[in-house]
Design goal:
Number of helices: 7
Keywords: Membrane, Transmembrane, Transmembrane helix
Strand order of the largest sheet: 1-2-3-4
Largest sheet: 4 strands, mixed
Helix content: 40-55%
InterPro entries: DUF4825
Organism: Halalkalibacter oceani
Order of helices and strands: HHEEHEEHHHH
Strand content: 5-15%
Shape: elongated
Pfam families: DUF4825 (PF16107)
Distance between the termini: 81 Å
Protein name: DUF4825 domain-containing protein
Radius of gyration: 23 Å
């Protein structure tokens, strides 16, 4: 064999080995990381609010945008439908099942997180009803604004979301006080 044939054989072997490494190690690793990231989006304590910012809008009238916002937030794994009342600037998020089917702490964290996110991202939304078969939790923008003592869009825009919204949700006393104030 001449040098040219050996070079072609060597490049072919390197290509096959490289293909094998990519298929058996790299791609599964990427898929695992993506799966872990998506699972983390189901909980308020690990949700990435930046992924929901694409649904920011001044008006709730775009039903597709509003529903996609809620489907990007925690509790998105629970089947849901929506009713919009554009006269009252209200959305009812209808969850399938009963409220007690969800862990209470995670549910309360998600309600607070989702309400804050929705009010921060949808400019004229005034009321949200998290509705289950057996119970509803209604929250108004005014209560959320009073709690944070600042315009809600600024929580996302100035980078204080982590400190002002997510981190405090880990504290049981904060969670209880916030739940009472909101709902």
């Amino acid at each position: 064999m001449n040098v040219r044939h050996r070079l072609i054989m060597m490049i072919s072997v390197i290509g096959v080995i490289g293909f094998f490494i990519v298929q058996t190690m790299v791609l599964p690793s990427i898929a695992e990381k993506e799966e872990a990231y998506q699972a983390a989006q189901n909980e308020a304590m690990s949700h990435d609010i930046e992924q929901s910012r694409r649904y920011q809008h001044n008006y709730m009238g775009d039903a597709g945008n509003l529903t996609q916002l809620f489907r990007s937030l925690p509790l998105r794994e629970v089947p849901m439908s929506f009713e919009l009342d554009s006269e009252r600037y209200r959305v009812q998020v209808n969850f399938e099942g009963n409220v007690d089917e969800l862990d209470r702490r995670k549910r309360e964290q998600a309600f607070i997180y989702n309400a804050t996110a929705a009010f921060a991202l949808i400019g004229n939304l005034q009321e949200i009803d998290f509705h289950f078969n057996d119970r509803s939790f209604v929250v108004e923008r005014e209560a959320v604004e009073e709690w944070y003592e600042q315009p809600l869009p600024s929580l996302i825009e100035d980078g204080s979301w982590e400190k002002m919204v997510r981190q405090p949700l880990a504290d049981a006393d904060y969670l209880e006080s916030c739940t009472e104030a909101f709902f």
